[in-house]
Amino acid sequence: MNVESLLNKIKIFKELVIDSGFKRDVIDNKQSIAQSQNQNLVFMKGLSENIKSNLIYFENNSLNNELNGVLRQNEPFTSLNTLEELENLDADKEINGQQYFQKFNTILNQLQKGIQSNETELNTVKTTFEKYVSEENEYESDEEQAVMSLIFKDLQSTGSLKEFSRVLQRWNRTLLVYHTLLKKESPKEISLVEIQNGSIDVIFNIDFDVAIDLTELLKTGLKVYGAYLAYKSKTAKEIIASYMGNKKLIETEKEREKLMLDNIKESIKQLALEQHKENLESDSPPLKTGATKKADEVAKVITEHIVRGNEIKLLTPPAPEEEDEIDISTELRTETAIVRERWKKLEEKEQQLLLEKYTIKDEEEKKEK
Fold first, then answer.
1. What is the residue-wise DSSP string for 276-309?
2. Which own/partner pairs from 127-134 qualify as long-range (CB within 8 Å, at least 24 positions apart)?
C-alpha cells in the first residue's frame, strides 16, 4: 500500500474517533451509567442517540473501509454492528432500566475495547511508516508533486476491465486538460503510484499547485451538489405541497429544480474558468485558446464522478496557515460525507435521474476527442 494513503487512513481515524472526543465520550458514558442514579431509560437513551449519530457520521465518512485498508491484527471497531445493536435496544418497548443498563454497558465495553485495539495497532503502524514521507514544508516548490487518490465505488465504473480502463483513460485526459487550463508548460505524464483493492483506489502524482486547485474545484462541486440533494430530498416536497395544486407555482418550482440540477456541473465549470483567469497573471500563464471547452470537459468528468458516489482525496495537503484551521483534504472529506448522507434520502427514481443526466455517453466522449 502507498505510504501516504496508509497514513491518510490513520489520520482519518484520529480525527473522527480520537480528536473529536468520541473515544473519551464512550468511556465517560460507561462511568456515568455505572452510577445508580443514572440508570434510567431517558438518560441512557440520550447517550445512545449520541453514539448512534457518531456511528452514522463514521459510516458517511467511509471509516470502516479506511480501517479495513490498514488493520491487520484487529477487526475495525466499525464492524461490531454497534449501531444495529443500539437501534434494537432502543426499539424494545418493554425493557426496564436495569435490563437496558446491562445490555448498554456490554455494548459500550465492546465498543471501547474495539476502539482501543484499533488505536494501538494504528499508532504502531504510524510510527513505523511516517518516517518514510516528506515533511509538509517540502511540498512548497512549483515543481513538487502532490499525491492524490481517485476512489471508485460504483459498480458501473469498476464492473469490468473494459469499463474501468475507459474511465481511467478519461481521467488521464481530464487531468492533463485541467493542467493546461492552469499552466503554460506542458504537463508531465500523470504518474500512477498504485491501485488498491476494495473500493478501487487509484493513487497518482500530479503538480502540487494543480492538485490544490483541483481540490477547491471538487469542494465547490460537492457543496452545490449537496445543496441540490438537501432541496430535493425534503425542501422541494414541502414547498410543492404548500402550493395546494397551483399549477403556475408548481411549474416555477420545477424550473428551479432544473436550474439547481444543471448548476452542479455549471458551478464546477465556472470556477475552473475563474482559476484559469487567475493563472493568466502568473509567471507561467496558460494559453487562452479553448479555455471554455476545456473547463466544460473537466466539469463533466468531475460531476459524473461525484454523482456516482465516487471520491477524490488529496493525500499530501499543505499545512493550514492557522493552527486551528482545518486542512483542505479534511474539508473535502467533510463535503463528501454530507453528500453521501443526503444521497441516501433520495428515492431510487430520483437517484437514477441524476445518474442518467450526468453519465458521460460514448458518443459525447468521441466528439470531445
1. HHHHTTSSSPPP-TTHHHHHHHHHHHHHHHHHTT
2. 129/3, 129/6, 129/7, 130/7, 132/3, 133/3, 133/4, 133/7, 133/316, 134/316
CA triple 161-166-167, angle to 5 deg = 100
Alpha carbon 287 to its chain's center: 32
Structure confidence by residue, pLDDT tens digits, 182-218: 998 877 777 777 677 556 888 999 999 999 999 999 9
Q: Compute the distance between CA of residue 227 and CA of residue 306 in angstroms, rounded to an integer.
A: 14
Q: Which regions of the chain does DSSP assign to beta strands (E)?
A: 145-152, 191-196, 200-207, 311-314
Determine the Cα angle at 84 with ends 81 and 85, to 5°: 85
How is residue 135 written as a grid cell? 515533511
Which amino acid would we find at residue 8? Answer: N
Any idea which residue has 444495529 for its cell?
A: 84
Annotate 238-252 with b (16+ C-beta within 10 A) or e (fewer).
ebbeeeeeeeeeeee
Pairing, β 200-207 against β 191-196: antiparallel
**How far from each other are the two terminal CA atoms of the chain, in whole angstroms?**
34
Average pLDDT over residues 304-325: 88
Q: What is the pLDDT of residues 253-287, one digit of tens each?
A: 889 889 999 999 999 999 999 999 999 998 889 99
In DSSP terms, which residues pair with 150 in a beta bridge?
Answer: 202, 312
Nearest to 149 by CA among 95, 93, 214, 233: 214
pTM of the complete model: 0.84
pLDDT of residue 134: 56
